[in-house]
Automatic annotation (TrEMBL):
InterPro entries: Tscrpt_reg_Rrf2, WH-like_DNA-bd_sf, WH_DNA-bd_sf. GO terms for molecular function: DNA-binding transcription factor activity. This is Rrf2 family transcriptional regulator. It comes from the Bacteria. It comes from Arachidicoccus soli. Coiled coil: none annotated. GO terms for cellular component: cytosol.
Length: 144
């Protein structure tokens, strides 16, 4: 459903959030290893997420990436919108450019509630809440 870049961005931000709760700054190398990502690829993604304000970074020997109260409020939808655009929230089920209420595709009415559910779910999924669910084992995410 998401691009590989977006998937890595989501996994990386969750990994960083988990480490931040323990008061740790995490390096690109540790993130890449922790989410099973190529290091050079995740470095570009993290640079973009830092520039966008999704994560914070500190340079130096004890530096790395971390999240604070503000960044923990970022939602999965924020990340998806940034890396993959709004298409997941608005696209036609079969990829037509002109699908609309006035001129619906054959799956329009069946797909409309699914698209709304995905939209609501991703917009309500704050990174801080996801990391809390992982901490108390209400959810599971296999990280290396």
């Amino acid at each position: 459903m998401f691009s590989k870049t977006c998937e890595y961005a989501i996994r990386a931000i969750i990994f960083i959030a988990l480490q931040s709760k323990e008061g740790k700054n995490v390096s690109i190398r540790d993130i890449a290893k922790g989410i099973d990502s190529p290091e050079h690829f995740i470095a570009k993604i993290l640079q973009e997420m830092s520039r966008k304000g999704f994560v914070n970074s500190i340079k130096g020997p004890n530096g790395g990436f971390y999240m604070d109260k503000k960044t923990l409020k970022i939602t999965i939808a924020d990340i998806v919108s940034h890396f993959d655009g709004e298409k997941v929230f608005t696209a036609c089920a079969i990829g037509l450019k002109q699908c609309s209420e006035a001129k619906p595709c054959p799956l329009h009415e069946q797909y409309k509630p699914i698209r709304k559910h995905i939209n609501d779910m991703l917009r309500g999924a704050q990174i801080g809440n996801i990391s809390e669910q992982l901490d108390i084992e209400l959810a599971y995410l296999k990280l290396k």
